[in-house]
TrEMBL record:
GO terms for molecular function: methyltransferase activity; nucleic acid binding. This is DNA methyltransferase. One of its GO terms (biological process) is methylation. SUPFAM superfamilies: S-adenosyl-L-methionine-dependent methyltransferases. InterPro entries: DNA_methylase_N6_adenine_CS, SAM-dependent_MTases_sf.
């Protein structure tokens, strides 16, 4: 089945064995305008292909009018903080993991995203479930090359661009998560990855 609806509405209507969650990352660059990293804005061409329509275009890049900041936005790209000083996106990730009706949840997230690895790890610790964490190295995306208006990335010394896969066994135990163990995966070594046995 293919659904097109808010994820927090969708989780009330489905039940699956495994859910793969790949939310927008936003940006960890405090100087980057939020409008620069909206998924809907950057991938607008795919919406046009799927809808096969002729939308009104705006701006120098001729993007769809209906993918602007005020029309098409995601809580996972939110730059604001709540009353406790925590980024709203952290709340959204925690809500997503808790509310997803699946035996296993795989959360994919980038080390240059608005939510830090430490923040996500704190969420997982509070869940008290069995967790496996995998790390994959990638080249930085196009946003990492934009420096003229933002004075560069604040994370230029963070050791590159990494994708983390957090595998959560929602049915497993209620014990405190042990010390973090991150298993590195080389995506070029597909044979090894396909044969890899998970921790649980």
């Amino acid at each position: 089945h293919v659904y097109q609806k808010d994820i927090f509405d969708l989780v009330d209507d489905i039940e699956v064995d495994l859910a793969y969650c790949d939310p927008p990352y936003g940006s960890s660059n405090e100087l980057m305008p939020p409008s620069r990293v909206r998924y809907a804005s950057y991938y607008h061409i795919w919406k046009t292909i799927c809808l096969n329509d002729k939308p009104k275009l705006v701006g120098v890049a001729n993007r769809r009018e209906d993918v602007g900041d005020t029309i098409s936005s995601s809580v996972f790209e939110e730059f604001r903080k709540n009353n406790e000083g925590q980024y709203i996106i952290i709340e959204a990730i925690e809500k997503l993991i808790k509310n997803t009706p699946a035996k296993y949840v795989v959360l994919s997230y980038n080390n240059n995203g608005r939510a830090t690895f430490e923040a996500i790890n704190d969420i997982l610790k509070n869940l008290k479930k069995k967790i496996s964490i995998f790390e994959i190295d990638y080249k930085k995306n196009v946003m990492a090359t934009i420096t003229r208006t933002t004075s560069g990335w604040i994370n230029d010394t963070n050791g590159g661009n990494k994708e983390y896969l957090f595998l959560i066994d929602k049915n497993g135990g209620t014990e405190i998560m042990p010390e973090i163990k991150i298993e590195k995966i080389d995506i070029r070594d597909l044979a090894l990855v396909n044969q890899r046995k998970l921790a649980f």
